[in-house]
Amino acid sequence: MFEKDSKYIFQTFARQPIAIARGRGTFVWDSEGRKYLDFVSGISVNIVGHCNPAVVSAIRKQSERFIHTSNLYYSEPQMELAEKLCRLARLDKVFFCNSGTEAVEAALKLAAKVTGKKEFIAMEGSFHGRTIGSLSVTHEEKFRIPFQHVLMKDVKFVRYNDADALRGAVSKDTAAVLIEPIQGESGVRIPSDGYLRSVREICDENGVLLILDEVQTAFGRTGRWFCKEYSGITPDIMTLAKALGGGLPLGAMLAREGIAKSFTKGDHGSTFGGNPLACSAGLAMIGVVKKENLVGRSRQLGDYFVRKLGNINSSQIKEVRGRGLMVGIELNIKGDKVVDAMREKGVLINCTAGNVLRFLPPLIIKKEHVDRVTAMLETVLEK
Ligand code: PLP
After folding, report:
1. HEC profile of 36-88
2. Which of 81, 216, 224, 305 lies 20 to 30 Å (CA to CA) from residue 97?
3. Domain tally, the chain
């Protein structure tokens, strides 16, 4: 089976050597029938667990009505989801697309149109996607360097969690500042209290837009519906994807009314964006998060998980950090062997930035799952 992958598929992913055959709740099974506790959730996507009955039922029902119409026509699931998102996020308008990178592209275009300016400021350690615009504002050089010659030129990177660095970088040409409320891909980096409020103030003082990238952090992942709630700020533009479609591909850019109205007919578009199937699944996902109070559960279990990990006595651990069920352990060693050892023992985790173990379980996990993963990790690190 793996030979077909290397023969027919672009080799752009470093894949784990298993093929997932089915999933249910917090578990997946591979093609050999081995069972795994899933602490990756398809990279923060399956927050209500695999094949959640409410999501499956919504997809089934919608697929029997109509699957696709394009954006040439109105569609009820899209309008319903847009209303829910605006209310939850306290923003006014939604543009639907299919992924995180597309949401960021939309945000860059909107900011450029609203301000008429060309410069963007992003953060060191940022990750916003891999298409040309979002790659231009992604900091990691190994992603950017091969494409440097076609990337946007007017991008400045400043130190994350350093308000003075941002203040010094803003200029009369700056259209927007782009920021993740917690940096996910560069290793679950949590800024200090008050930093995002300072970023908001700097943007306001200079007439610069603030784009908040909540692609990885939204829908309870960090113990609030949106991570922005910890700082009390409202961005001008916000990007969403990952968990948004209940497992189906869906992205969104949200904005305040005064900014959104700058995009007029033809300024942006997408054939699939806001697909009825994905929007129905997204509505079901939000329903489950509300009904089962998964936001509060994420906060409580996340605190417990970080405390338990903090009690592991290992010289390999440099730091444990997390907010809600977005948890990272920075190691003194590379993380890939730990990921392999955990997988062999039946637990899926992820390693990012080379040495940070990242845990993004579905928000429906139980305390006993946290205990199992912590105990197993302790054994693996001992070895
Ligand atoms: N923005 C953030 C903060 C992300 O974490 C990611 C993906 O990891 C993206 C954007 C890109 O999302 P996608 O892979 O759906 O294009």
Report:
1. EEECCHHHHCCCCCECCHHHHHHHHHHHHHCCCCCCCCCCHHHHHHHHHHHHH
2. 224
3. 2
Residue 341 identity (one-letter amino acid): A
User: 317 CB contacts (<8 Å, ≥6 apart)?
Assistant: 309, 329, 330, 331, 332, 381
Whether residue 111 is found in the same domain as residue 43:
no
Q: Which residue of the set 213, 219, 226, 308 is catalytic? A: 213
The CATH number given to whatever domain includes residue 299 is: 3.90.1150.10
Give the residue whose CA is nearest to atom 12 of ligand 1.
100
359 is catalytic: no
C-alpha 214 – ligand 1 centre gap (Å)? 9
Residue 246 lies in domain: 54-291
Q: Is 84 part of the annotated catalytic residue set?
A: no
Residues 111 and 227 occupy one common structural domain: yes
Atom of ligand 1 nearest to the CA of 104: 10
Q: Is the CB of 182 under 6 A from ligand 1?
A: no
Q: Domain containing 96 — which CATH number?
A: 3.40.640.10
CA of 128 to the centre of ligand 1 (A): 5
Please tell me which residue in 117, 228, 242, 308 is annotated as part of the active site.
242
267 and 134 part of one domain = yes
67 vs 63: CA distance, rounded Å: 5
Q: Encode the chain (383 residues) as per-residue pLDDT tens digits.
A: 799 999 999 999 999 999 999 999 999 999 999 999 999 999 999 999 999 999 999 999 999 999 999 999 999 999 999 999 999 999 999 999 999 999 999 999 999 999 999 999 999 999 999 999 999 999 999 999 999 999 999 999 999 999 999 999 999 999 999 999 999 999 999 999 999 999 999 999 999 999 999 999 999 999 999 999 999 999 999 999 999 999 999 999 999 999 999 999 999 999 999 999 999 999 999 999 999 999 999 999 999 999 999 999 999 999 999 999 999 999 999 999 999 999 999 999 999 999 999 999 999 999 999 999 999 999 999 98
Residue 279 near residue 80, CB atoms below 8 Å: yes
User: Three-state SS string across 107-142, please?
Assistant: HHHHHHHHHCCCEEEEECCCCCCCCHHHHHCCCCHH
User: Atom 5 in ligand 1: which residue has the minimum CA distance?
Assistant: 216
118 is catalytic: no
Domain boundary among 265, 291, 317: 291
Q: What is the position in ligand 1's atom list of the atom closest to the CA of 251?
A: 15
